[in-house]
Amino acid sequence: MLPSRSARALAVALLAVLLGAMLPATTAQAASRTVQGGRLDWGIKSSFQSYVTGPIAQGSWSLTGGAATVGGSQFRFHSANGSYDPATGAFSSGFSGGVHFTGHKKADGTNELDLTIGRPTIRITGGSGTLFADMVSKERGTGKVTNRSQVPLATLSLGGINMKGGSTPIALSNVPTTLTSQGASAFAGYYTAGTPLDPISLSVDTKGAAEPKPAPSEKKDEDAKKDAEKDKAKKKAEKEKAGRFEDAAVDWGVRRTFREYVTGSIGQGKWTLADGAEDGGALFRFAQGKGTYDAKKQTLDAGFDGSIHFTGAHDLDLKFAGVTVAVAKGEGTLSADVTSAGTTRKDVPLITFAAKDFAPKEGLAVLTEAPATLTEDGSKAFGSMYRAGTEMDPVSLAVAVDDKAQLPALPDLGSEPTAAAEPTAKASAEPSAAPVAAASDSGPGAGTYAAIGGGVLLLAAAGAFFALRRRGAGQGPDADATSAGSDAPQTS
Predict the structure, then answer these.
(1) What end-to-end distance do the CA atoms of the chain give, in Å?
(2) What pLDDT does residue 220 have?
(3) Per the record, where are the segments of Basic and acidic residues compositional bias (predicted)?
(4) Measuring CA to CA, how many Å separate 178 from each of 5, 45, 403?
């Protein structure tokens, strides 16, 4: 007896629904995505850091290009930019910022150890990964300086990681790295090829191709014309306001060691941004600057939005708000309203900084990482934790003197990864602490797992359909339907 028409229709409908549901997901997963925004955390080699600052090298390290510190011994590189293909798992992302190591100071004031590592790039394809970086190093013995771009510095151990099918953000956690032969050479020979380096962690945002813009309607054309006329009138009015500007930003990280103290084991605290202030990792941005600027005299008087509040153990309670900047005669002063222990002092001059070349170029008057020192009043604001004259974080300042000019972009750290964004990798023999590829709303290989799940349902539906047919031919149920050594660098 043939199966009923309704039963056959039900099986066919189920097949169609499942196929229809799966195809859009597969298509979406296959589309290549752009990496835009995110961070890479890497200590390079923590024992090398200790060696540089220890009793042998007696050196130090400094951050460049907006790099920051995070945790006990990691550097944070920012503003991820690149591409990701969910279909193949191919991933390429460059990051901004660098670290400059110096040590073994000689009698002439130069350093025998002089190494800069910057602009790290992670590339993953076909299950293998490499970390590239710009490297400037001084050869031991000869002192010859070598400047190399995007050196393949380290290989990544990607065992157990499935890079396919991830959504945003894409995250990797504690991926082991190993020094390459080219990296060893660029490292000035302090380590040999095959030496383990610190693991990396990263989190980046991805986005698909932009939707095509619809053709403007006649009404939109009229609105655009009116807006243009308003803009023209606004520009004319602004020109009449001699020296006035309405768009500026000042970037200042306060002091790196202070930030580390606040969030470390002693301060056990945090900072809170409000009123428009933004966090760039190694710096804080106070934006929406307004005031006056004289291009000929290179003078500035500006106020900015934003506040930052540091709190923690040992009665740590310090807030900066109402930030202002004044520039005259080649020197700048950054002031703020300072609140501590419930008392507020207005317009306290915190730091002074060099501002010798503040002429506008291409519509922007810019100072980049100008060295800054603490004032006497600034020392009091910090409860005399630092003496007057102490070197503070540098200041970057940008003033738009042309309506078309755009302020420099703030370091982009991307979305904050969460525990939910880091499911375990695909099944393997790796231990539970193995690195993972992560996605916020689905696990690694989510597209693969979804397709597998849909395939199981599809096979089940097909089995049900053919079972109905076989039943009609006098056969029983389809039995096959359910089968299917020392870490110190080398110094000699």
Answers:
(1) 89
(2) 60
(3) 216-240
(4) 64, 10, 49
